[in-house]
Task: structure prediction
Amino acid sequence: EKDKELIRGSWESLGKNKVPHGVIMFSRLFELEPALLNLFHYNTNCSPTQDCLSSPEFLDHVTKVMLVIDAAVSHLDDLHTLEDFLLNLGKKHQAVGVNTQSFVVVGESLLYMLQCSLGQGYTAPLRQAWLNMYSIVVAAMSRGWAK
Ligand code: HEM
Result:
């Protein structure tokens, strides 16, 4: 319950500015794993990375990711209701060539974004609460690979 409070409290302000926070997250992701940029076919041959990050399709994906996080935060009490959606989302990512291992790096990037945005509010319990929720989301998405 404490976890849920921490997540909801921190998302309250972040969730109002999804795109800028999502851009921080994905900038970090491509810094840590630049090869992922190639999976966005509409982003081919753009450099520096910053140019890719401002393309409309890319910002669209950032928005989609943030909306999934938003849905998870709204459904903290009944995350299982997102199971089918997340399993299908996993399948789509398998189809575009994402490796489940990359979700670990996405998680690190999410934490990095939270740290940048929350400053002093980024505490060990808050970090753990987000990791727990993220693990549930990723586990459900990863089940999409099995079938
Ligand atoms: C769709 C890549 C992580 C949510 C897509 C597409 C690509 C992609 C190429 C299809 C084109 C598009 O819609 O823009 C990636 C990569 C990721 C990643 C490389 C990092 C490993 C995530 C995560 C989430 C997410 C973590 C949410 C938690 C979505 C959604 C769609 C999508 C909602 C739209 C699916 C649909 O069309 O129904 N992703 N993605 N993605 N992605 Fe990701």
